[in-house]
Specification:
By secondary structure, the protein is an all-alpha fold. The chain has three helices and no strands. The chain binds heme C (2 copies). Residues 62, 64-65, 81, 83-84, 87, 98, 100-101, 103-104, 116, 120-123, 125-127 line the site of one heme C.
Length: 151
């Protein structure tokens, strides 16, 4: 009986010992995602400028068009939506900006409203500008409806 307990204790001690050793070896291999040490200030991220006036192709038929201008000065909240001051008719005519399509006035029951519907109010949900940045990961996206007969 006693020898059995001793054997178990020895096995446990060995397992613990190897565990600690293993953890120590592992810690040296772990690479942090942060490029700087934890006690050093982080390097500021690169600032990319929006490509003004760039025309972006749509990657698929239903894609909301990308915004060809910078948008950081245009406030959008429950009271103001500065995108609308250029893109809603009749301002769109005065500002020579493309008018938002009728789809933006249709509510979730398919009924046309007179003002932009709530489900299209936050433009940046769907329309975003682009910067000239290197893609973080490879992208092999193919649209589902590519009609090869027409090419
Ligand atoms: C000062 C007026 C003005 C404001 C404010 C404005 N835009 Fe524009 N926007 C334009 C003009 C003008 C164009 C057309 C520019 C061009 O084609 O080069 C345009 C183009 C676009 C397009 C491209 C449409 C297409 O068919 O390709 C989108 C999308 C767009 N804007 C979204 C927005 C969003 C979202 C906001 C708010 C964050 C906004 N705009 C605010 C004037 C404005
Ligand atoms: C839920 C997604 C969604 C939201 C939110 C949205 N849009 Fe769109 N928008 C689209 C799609 C999809 C298209 C392309 C199909 C179409 O023209 O209806 C489009 C088209 C456009 C166009 C081009 C219209 C044309 O005839 O060339 C403009 C400009 C535009 N949106 C502006 C806006 C503005 C401004 C807002 C905010 C008030 C907004 N959108 C909110 C999805 C959205």
């Amino acid at each position: 009986m006693k020898t059995k307990i001793k054997a178990i204790a020895l096995a446990l001690a060995l397992a613990l010992g190897f565990g600690v050793l293993g953890a120590a070896a592992g810690a040296a291999d772990v690479k942090s995602l942060r490029p700087t040490e934890a006690n050093q200030p982080d390097a500021p991220p690169a600032i990319f400028k929006v490509v003004e006036g760039a025309k972006h192709d749509r990657a698929y038929r239903q894609q909301p068009p990308m915004v060809p201008h910078s948008i950081d000065k245009y406030e959008t909240d429950i009271k103001v939506n500065q995108c609308l001051r250029c893109h809603e008719w009749p301002f769109s005519d005065q500002e020579k900006a493309p008018k938002i399509s009728d789809m933006h006035y249709i509510d979730r029951n398919g009924i046309r409203q007179d003002t932009v519907n709530g489900n299209r109010y936050f433009c940046k949900q769907c329309h975003v500008p682009q910067v000239d940045a290197k893609p973080l990961v490879d992208n092999k996206f193919q649209p589902a409806t590519l009609n090869t007969n027409l090419r």
